[in-house]
User: Fold this.
Amino acid sequence: MEITDPLESVTPVNVSSYLREMAARQPYKRAVVAPVGRDKVDRVTYTQLNFQQLDQESDRIARGLDDAGIKRGVRTILMVKPCLEFFVLTFAMFKVGAVPVVVDPGMGIKRMLSCFQECSPKAFIGIPLAHVVRTLYPKFFKSVNTWVTVGRRWFWGGLTFDQLRGDAWQPYETAATTRDEVAAILFTTGSTGPAKGAVYTHGNFYSQIRYIQAHFEIAPDEIDLPTFPLFALFDPALGMTAIIPDMDPTKPALVDPEKIIEPIKNHGVTNMFASPALLNRVGGYGKANGVKLPSLRRVVSAGAPVAPANIEQFSTMLGEHAQIHTPYGATEAVPIISIASREILSETRARSESGFGTCVGYPLDNLDIEIIGINDDPIEKWKDTLMVPDGEIGEIVVKGEHVTRGYFKNPKADALAKMADDINGGFWHRMGDLGWRDSKGRIWFCGRKNHRVETVDGPLYSVPCEAIFNNHPEVFRSALVGTGNFPDQEPVMCIELQPELSNPDKKRIESELLDLAESTELTKEIKIILFHKAFPVDIRHNSKIFREKLKIWAEKKLGTN
Assistant:
């Protein structure tokens, strides 16, 4: 299915027009399906909207938002769980030109509130629990003058979703937003520093949708199981049916595998997004129980490096032609690079497990990806002399249409992450990730820039070093940290053992891990092993390890702080 490119032929630009286009093409195809309970024989019951209904419902809500003062350019906190109303509201906000402000509630109440306050929002749309939070911390919402409750409104006043909806549908004239006009502010998880509000324009979203459709070859009959709520919003624009899973999206590592497998079989799901943690949990269950999922054409896993063993395990459930794709990107720019399981398992796996890094694949068409020298300071202007030769580790940088231009009112973050390109036009985004390019043009990820350990003998990089230790059968995952300060750090390898081990012999395992470290030039400097019960991880994907917290823990453990 080919999607027209309004950036080339139509102005103004509003990302909600993708929904209108799909409603015209396939009005009666299911757009969103959500579980609502179970019948007397324990079968899941569902509620749904087709594309025409979703378009019309978002028209009704758009008119209600407009009447309530939530208009073009109004920054609006959106705190709604995945459900039909989540889709209706988001596309309604795009239609009026309002700006959703989206923050992961799992980052913690104080950090979440700080993000909201930073944006000076004028409106707040949320479920009852979200309104309870904002009533307990009123000083963070002084700028808000319009409140909407999705669900039962208690004592806090304001409007309800049902009141916004009105009595009858009438076509709503979409706001004439422009390509460079702000469409949304999406906050990063803050897993490697303070959370930052990435500013998405309507042009960014348009390009993002085009890249996803073209790279993954999304067909007209696709059905998606999006286990990450924000990715679910791409489905209506891509013409895919979104099946909302019965799970807590903030805890993918603890998901009930049956509640993921069941909707895939019920609906013939063809596409699925899964964080590495969810992929591992469902894949382990599926392999152990001989589960087969023949309807799946592709699985997309992102959010952190995906171990080849994890890919191999989940692949046991897939048909001959299905693949697991591991696209690479960040909140500010996604997707930009991708590779699929066939190439990983047949070629790059052995090198990854030997410490070469994780191969994230080839740059997507028409994107510029380069590797520049490692530098912790701002770089104002792009110069070709910044680039390092192929094979040398440096920082990954990207330039392209769907790369966000900056952060919301955060010039310090802009200075560290953005470089103007006066030579070729546009700007470059510094990913903050380290990697290198091989002779085939593939990029290999070697970890975050601020996770490298600088020793007197030179730098150590997290992902390559950890791969050596992850080869031990009793290791679930490892994390390299450096105690002390640059450039004289002591490398320490933190180890989380396999969860099924009831009484592990840690002395034996430590000795074996030190032997592993000594066996390669890459890790021979690592002389300290520390066992940690359960690594702190990000709330969004349960996969990114908070190495900053582990560093503090290790320093306390060793008495070096």
